[in-house]
């Protein structure tokens, strides 16, 4: 249009500038008029278009302002929303969060961006978040869970997570709404507590409305009165009245309730079967904000039961409820009398501590009811073969004490007498015990201390016998040992080691050694087991057999086990980088009972693998059979989670535990390690030879690899080749060696 306007303008200017033409004046005037008219029309059109453009530009500016305001309002609403919001990337780093969540965590919003969200999750809930995130990735569906976040306040904060996945280009982001449910948890706990108190309270509770009609009773009410809840609903409590009280008694009682809103006293009531019984009754009136009585509630206890229980309480104070044997309290009285009598008569006595070998395995694998039956039968057998003047006591768990009195005045003769008793106890307890559907055969370890020569008070006498018991266990169990001065030195040494363990990690006194696991056919190193060594500053090199059990007892094994895993994985990463792991070898690490049963064990393994950068397939966890069968279903979930990561699993010391083939089939393990006790005499002992052959056949049928531990000579290796065993380890190839020496083996 602009070109046309310019063309018309030029035509008009040409006519005006030109002189007389061949056209008549009338024609020229008409031409000019027409051009001017067209110019005027285009001018009007241009003005209209200009107005439209101006209006459109104003509308665009208004829309931009509205959009800016809307975005600003959105972000204000996002930050002041009552629910926290956070966005995570695939590595759990915080990409964005609102002010609500930052305030909940007690942190500055800018300080939290790019941090790991898991660093704000309570360590006991790490596995919860791990599995929760895994479900989101697997199902691609919105998920919810509840866990605790670490805040700047004194207590972790309970929150509910509602999350969904969003794929942005090639990245997956996790959008999570974080709702503070701490107050709901408190209310829930209060309601559960109130409900539990009402339901489980041993005293009868009854609630009526203002008209004194029963609306609620608890189980104790039913047990005491004999009335079921439906039988008393809507009725007046007077159905419990006996003929022991006159009308004046009840008038006085209700007068006090109406005046003081409370009454307490003894009263006779009547059960459903007509039996009268005394009870301690408390009645309280409840009022609303308008000062009107809305409910009455009563709490009562049967005094007959209370009086009958006094004798039972006395019995419970001095006897073990399961075995009916004297407990520690009554044992103390008996020991004091026995010590005084021994001093007076110049005779000897003995205290024996008995511990059933591997009772925990039986208890965990067959159930606590079977374990209880075993303890009861043990108590019966002990009672049948101990004199009436002697005492049998159960300390707790599977520990029993036998107190022998009036032994010989001669110490050596007394030792012989005690030895005969100990042998008789062992013989009696090793006979088959039938408990339900199981025929059990157990053994017992016994520690013995003499009095008054070894000790002259209960505390030291039990302590010394306990030291002797440790010695009996160290010697392989199923034997008895007397206390000696050397045992006291062992006990003192254990205490010293326990104290030193706490500082061992801090002072970097631990070191990892490595023992190759070798392919039977090629004789090449295919994997390596890490072994812990402790360089004590005073005691020198301490064998794991000396301190691992103490670490287990004290709980230090968790920190030590974590350190071993971290160091082993870091070392594998170093070998990977140095090109010493071209054969895709893996490193095997023993995991203790306490370590495996940590609530955050799965999260810890994931963290260590991430930090070390090694492949999960390069880590093998060695677990004993006894660890796995303690809680099969719970352990199975952990094993499956580890397998989902790609971590290898092995059963260590296979053949020495109590697991069944049913469990072996269910556990997602990769490898069985044959205990060295079977390999040691494999050439001479036909039974061991058959056991090893059977384990190898079993493993092959289940597509599991086998490692034979403790191979010390070529004959053993030749037999393993013959039966198609996969791998071996032992002194025949290499002792456990330091990092530097193992690297020499790899290069060789």
Q: How do you describe this structure in short?
A:
The protein has 748 residues and is an alpha+beta fold. The chain has five domains: 2-47; 81-185, Beta-Lactamase; 201-308, Beta-Lactamase; 323-483, Reverse transcriptase/Diguanylate cyclase domain (Alpha-Beta Plaits), CATH 3.30.70.270; 497-747, Alpha-Beta Barrel (TIM Barrel).
DSSP strand tally: 26
Classify the helix fraction into a percent range. Answer: 40-55%
Radius of gyration: 42 Å
CATH homologous superfamily classification of the largest domain: EAL domain
Using the coordinates above, name the CATH class of the largest domain.
Alpha Beta
Inertia-based shape: flat
| Proportion of beta-strand residues | 15-25%
The quaternary structure here is: single chain
**Number of helix segments?**
27
Largest sheet: 8 strands, mixed, barrel
Taking the alpha carbons of the first and last residues, their distance comes to 90 Å
Unreliable stretches:
71-75
Q: Kindly name the structural category.
A: alpha+beta
Quote the average pLDDT. Answer: 86
Overall domain count: 5
Spatial arrangement of strands, main beta sheet:
18-19-21-22-23-24-25-26
Please give the CATH architecture of the largest domain: Alpha-Beta Barrel
| CATH topology category name of the largest domain | TIM Barrel
Give a topology summary.
Elements: H1 2-17, H2 25-80, E1 84-88, E2 94-97, H3 99-105, H4 109-112, H5 126-139, E3 143-149, E4 157-168, E5 171-180, H6 182-200, E6 204-209, E7 214-217, H7 219-225, H8 229-232, H9 247-260, E8 262-270, E9 276-287, E10 293-302, H10 303-318, H11 328-345, E11 349-356, H12 359-366, H13 368-384, E12 391-396, E13 399-404, H14 411-430, E14 433-435, E15 438-440, E16 444-451, H15 458-474, E17 480-482, H16 485-504, E18 510-519, E19 525-536, E20 540-542, H17 544-554, H18 556-577, E21 586-590, H19 593-596, H20 601-612, E22 619-624, H21 625-628, H22 632-645, E23 648-654, H23 661-666, E24 671-674, H24 676-680, H25 686-701, E25 705-709, H26 714-722, E26 727-729, H27 739-747
Parallel strand pairs: 16-17, 19-21, 21-22, 22-23, 23-24, 24-25, 25-26
Antiparallel strand pairs: 1-2, 1-5, 3-4, 4-5, 6-7, 6-10, 8-9, 9-10, 11-13, 11-16, 12-13, 14-15, 18-19, 18-26, 19-20
Helix pairs in contact: 1-2, 12-13, 15-16, 16-17, 17-18, 18-20
């Amino acid at each position: 249009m602009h070109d046309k306007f310019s063309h018309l303008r030029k035509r008009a200017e040409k006519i005006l500038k030109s002189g007389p033409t061949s056209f008549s004046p009338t024609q020229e005037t008409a031409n000019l008029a027409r051009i001017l008219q067209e110019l005027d029309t285009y001018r009007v059109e241009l003005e209209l278009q200009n107005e439209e453009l101006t209006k459109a530009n104003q509308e665009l500016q208004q829309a931009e302002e509205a959009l800016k305001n809307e975005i600003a309002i959105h972000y204000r609403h996002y930050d002041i929303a009552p629910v926290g919001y956070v966005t995570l990337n695939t590595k759990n780093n915080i990409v964005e969060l609102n002010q609500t969540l930052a305030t909940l965590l007690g942190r500055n919003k800018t300080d939290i961006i790019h941090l790991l969200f898991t660093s704000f999750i309570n360590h006991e809930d790490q596995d919860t978040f791990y599995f929760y995130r895994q479900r989101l990735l697997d199902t691609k569906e919105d998920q919810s869970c509840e866990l605790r976040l670490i805040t700047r306040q004194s207590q972790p904060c309970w929150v509910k997570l509602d999350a969904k996945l969003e794929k942005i280009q090639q990245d997956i982001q996790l959008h999570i709404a974080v709702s503070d449910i701490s107050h709901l948890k408190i209310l829930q706990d209060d309601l559960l507590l109130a409900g539990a108190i009402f339901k489980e309270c041993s005293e009868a509770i009854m609630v009526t409305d203002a008209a004194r009609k029963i609306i609620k009773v608890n189980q104790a009410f039913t047990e005491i009165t004999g009335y079921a809840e439906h039988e008393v609903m809507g009725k007046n409590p007077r159905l419990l009245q006996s003929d022991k009280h006159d009308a004046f008694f009840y008038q006085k009682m209700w007068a006090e309730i109406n005046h003081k809103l409370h009454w307490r006293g003894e009263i006779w009531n009547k059960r459903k079967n007509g039996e009268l019984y005394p009870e301690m009754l408390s009645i309280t009136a409840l009022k609303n904000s308008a000062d009107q009585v809305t409910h009455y509630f009563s709490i009562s206890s049967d005094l007959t039961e209370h009086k009958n229980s006094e004798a039972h309480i006395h019995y419970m104070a001095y006897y073990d409820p399961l075995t009916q044997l004297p407990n520690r309290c009554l044992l103390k009285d008996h020991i004091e009398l026995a010590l005084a009598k021994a001093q007076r008569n110049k005779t000897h006595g003995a205290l024996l501590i008995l511990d059933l070998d591997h009772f925990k395995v039986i208890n965990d694998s067959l159930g606590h009811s079977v374990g209880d039956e075993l303890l009861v039968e043990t108590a019966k057998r002990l009672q049948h073969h101990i004199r009436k003047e002697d005492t049998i006591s159960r300390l707790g768990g599977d520990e029993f004490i036998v107190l022998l009195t009036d032994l010989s005045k001669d110490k050596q003769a007394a030792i012989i007498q005690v030895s005969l008793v100990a042998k008789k106890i062992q013989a009696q307890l090793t006979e088959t015990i039938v408990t339900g559907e199981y025929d059990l055969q157990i053994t017992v370890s016994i520690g013995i201390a003499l009095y008054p020569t070894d000790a002259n008070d209960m505390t030291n006498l039990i302590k010394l016998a306990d030291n002797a018991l440790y010695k009996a266990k160290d010697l392989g169990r199923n034997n008895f040992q007397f206390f000696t001065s050397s045992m006291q030195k062992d006990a003192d040494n254990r205490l010293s080691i326990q104290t030193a363990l706490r500082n061992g990690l801090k002072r970097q006194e631990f070191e990892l050694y490595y023992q190759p696991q070798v392919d039977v056919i090629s004789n090449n190193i295919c994997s390596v087991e890490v072994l812990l060594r402790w360089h004590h500053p005073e005691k020198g090199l301490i064998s794991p057999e000396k301190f691992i059990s103490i670490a287990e007892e004290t709980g230090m094994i968790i920190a030590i086990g974590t350190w071993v895993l971290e160091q082993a994985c870091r070392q594998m990463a170093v070998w990977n980088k140095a090109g010493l792991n071209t054969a895709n070898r893996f490193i095997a690490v023993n995991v203790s009972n306490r370590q495996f049963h940590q609530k955050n064990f799965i999260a810890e393994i994931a963290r260590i693998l991430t930090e070390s950068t090694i492949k999960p397939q390069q880590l093998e966890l060695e677990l004993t059979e006894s660890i796995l069968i303690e809680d099969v279903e719970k352990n199975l979930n952990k094993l499956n989670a580890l397998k989902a990561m790609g971590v290898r699993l092995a059963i260590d010391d296979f053949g020495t535990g109590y697991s069944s083939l049913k469990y072996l089939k269910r556990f997602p393990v990769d490898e069985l390690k044959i205990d060295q006790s079977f390999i040691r005499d494999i050439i001479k002992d036909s039974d061991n030879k058959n056991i090893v052959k059977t384990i190898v056949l079993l493993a092959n049928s289940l597509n599991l690899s086998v490692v034979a531990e403790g191979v010390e000579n070529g004959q053993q290796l030749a037999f393993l080749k013959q039966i198609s065993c996969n791998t071996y380890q032992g002194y025949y190839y290499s002792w456990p060696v330091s990092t530097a020496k193992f690297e020499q083996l790899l290069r060789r």
